[in-house]
Amino acid sequence: MSSLRHIPDARLDGYLDAARDCILDVGWRRTTLTEVAKRASVSRMTIYRAWPDMGSLLGDLMTREWVGIAAATRVAALDTTTPAGIAAAALSTVRALRDNALFVRIVELDPDLMLPYLLSRRGRSQEALIEILASEIESGQASGAIRPGDPTLMARALTLAGHGFVFSALTMVDADVSLEDLDAEYVRLVARTLEP
Q1: Bigger pLDDT: 193 or 73?
Q2: Which of 58, 79, 152, 159 is deepest in the core (most CB within 10 A)?
Q3: Distance of CA 64 to CAs 24, 59, 68, 75, 125, Å?
Q4: What pLDDT sits at residue 77?
Q5: CA 21, chain centre distance (Å)
Q6: Which residues of 26-36 are buried (b: 16+ CB within 10 A; e: fewer)?
């Protein structure tokens, strides 16, 4: 399977942008590599050389999209080495994913695409998010701001909790509980999990 690092960034981004546009227009199931090539103004073989099928292209697109969101929310955070800072950055990531046009479109039209990542295996995006979070936890542990423990284990547990707030938060909203209320509980959950 091809990976992001095998194609020069400028070309890759253009191809992934074309794929993103297709998926936003017609959904993943109706998007073809041929249509991606047409939108990217390149030959079909150019796209086929980069990705053998739509599944591998979608994997690269999701990785770029979700990891880009996490990286941007981390950069915007003031301090991601304290429980409060990590909790604030985690909430920013959850909100950005929930509002992401590509994520929303996939969940609306092709939600089964997400099931393997929720039920049977971690994807590259999840691995990257766990790695970012584990690194932040480890830095916080070095300064004494975060409780001792295996940073990867802690990051995986918090990622599992985050899944619910990304995928299912709206199922818990009603006249008694707002999305803002739930988000505030998520911040408390993350911060308290990490406190010494």
Answers
A1: 193
A2: 58
A3: 16, 9, 6, 16, 8
A4: 67
A5: 18
A6: eebeebebebb
The pTM assigned to this predicted structure is: 0.85
| Backbone angle region of 137, left / alpha / beta, with phi > 0 → left and psi within -120 to 50 → alpha | alpha
Residues whose CB is less than 8 angstroms from the CB of residue 26 and which lie 6 or more positions away in sequence, other chains included: none
The single residue listed with the structure tokens 């800072």 is 85
Read off the amino acid at residue 191: A
pLDDT of residue 76: 66
CA-CA distance, 158 to 60, in Å (whole number)? 24
Strand, coil or helix: 43? coil
Separation of CA 40 from chain center: 24
Q: Determine the Cα angle at 153 with ends 149 and 155, to 5°.
A: 100
Q: What is the pLDDT of residue 1?
A: 42
Domains and CATH numbers, the chain: 58-194 (1.10.357)
| Averaged pLDDT for residues 34-47 | 94
CB-hemisphere CA count at 13 Å for 156? Answer: 10
